[in-house]
Amino acid sequence: MIILECQYCGTEFTAERISAKYCSDSCKTKANTQRRENELIQRKNEARQAEIEREAELKRESDEYFAAEKAENERIIAEQRKQSEEKRRLRERERHEKDREKKINEAEQKFKLTALGIVAALGIGYKIIQAITKPVTPTAKAPHMPNNQTDEISSPNPNHEPIANHSKQKKEPTKNK
Ligand SMILES: [Zn+2]
Question: What tens digit of pLDDT does each residue of 148-158 get?
Answer without folding.
Answer: 554 544 455 55
